[in-house]
Structure formats: structure tokens, C-alpha cells
Amino acid sequence: MAIVLIGFMGAGKTTIGQALAGRLNKRFVDLDTYIEQREGRTIATIFSADGEDYFRQLEHEALRTWLPEDIIMATGGGIVEREENIHILNQNADTFWLNTDIEKLFVRISGDLSRPNAAEHTFSQIKELYNKRLSRYNEIAFMEVDSNKTVEECVELILTHLSHS
Ligand code: S3P
User: Where does ATP bind (predicted)?
Assistant: First the structure.
């Protein structure tokens, strides 16, 4: 079963996931990158050509494909938008929620055209989305990791928890 990183856009899932995979000598899979490679187009193009619902279906299928594998997985921030995903991830003991202050997240993601749910969004719109997802992240997380900390500190926290579980 995969070790899964969840959390809002810009929380560091990819960076921390890669570092964690290096430490554990496991393969790292970023669901967004996997979807882009399979589709041969970017997330932004998928959203604009086929809509968010279509992307969510691809994301759900990608999650089901990779969850049983012995990998480190970074999910997209909207993985909790689908009830089925919450259900599946709830059964996975090794789901870590990376959480960072919304002010910092906004600086990192605002205006990022590769992120359709952040580009051209105001602070209050992003904050509303963040608040809506918080309880869902919390519900499925085995542990919340404060990713205001450095990448190394986050990796150490996750490793410590894994070694005690
Ligand atoms: C999304 C987050 C993105 C990506 C897509 C939608 C979201 O992933 O899946 O743009 O709705 O929060 P990151 O969290 O890696 O930016």
C-alpha cells in the first residue's frame, strides 16, 4: 500500500514526496504528472477542454491504480473533492496531510496558470476552497504534518511516525 501525501495546492506534496521517496528508497509517483503523461496534455488543458469533472474521473482512476503499490504518492489538492476517494483513502493507514498557512499557500499558487483552481482566483476564493477542504483532509489523515517547516523536518516527522506505526 502506498504512503500518500495529501493537502492543499502549494503545500509541498511533490517536493516532500520526492525527498521521502529518496530516504525510503521507494518509487515516487505524482498523480498529476502521471495523468498528464497518460493523457499527453497538461492539467490546465484537460480542465479547459473537458472540464473539471472529467479530470476528477481521471484522478480517481489514477488513485485506484497506484494506491495498492509500494510507492510514495503525491495527490492533487482536490483529491478530496470525490467522496469515493475519501472512502478509499480512509482505509489507508499511511496518509499524511501536509498543511501550511493559507497566506503562504496563496503566495505560492496565485497566478499559477498550470493550476486552474488557483490561477485568476482571489485570496478570498482560495481561502474559501481551503476552508471547505480542511475537514476532509483532517478526516482521512493518519497524521497532520506542519509543512511550514523545512522539507527535511517534514520528512523526519513522517519517518518517525512510520517507524512507530
Ligand atoms: C487541484 C490541484 C492540483 C491539480 C489540479 C486541481 C485542486 O494539484 O490536481 O490543478 O483542485 O486543488 P496540486 O495540489 O499538486 O497543485
Answer: 10-15, 115
The pTM score is 0.97
162: in domain: no
Give the Å distance between the CA of 164 and the centre of ligand 1.
Answer: 30
pLDDT 10s digit of each residue in the chain, 165 long? Answer: 999 999 999 999 999 999 999 999 999 999 999 999 999 999 999 999 999 999 999 999 999 999 999 999 999 999 999 999 999 999 887 999 999 999 999 999 999 999 999 998 999 999 999 999 999 999 999 999 999 999 999 999 999 999 987
CA distances from 82 to 4, 24, 45, 122, 159 (A): 16, 29, 21, 24, 28
CA dist 162 and 165 (Å) reads 5
Number of folded domains that form the chain: 1
From the annotation, which residues make up the binding site for ATP?
10-15, 115
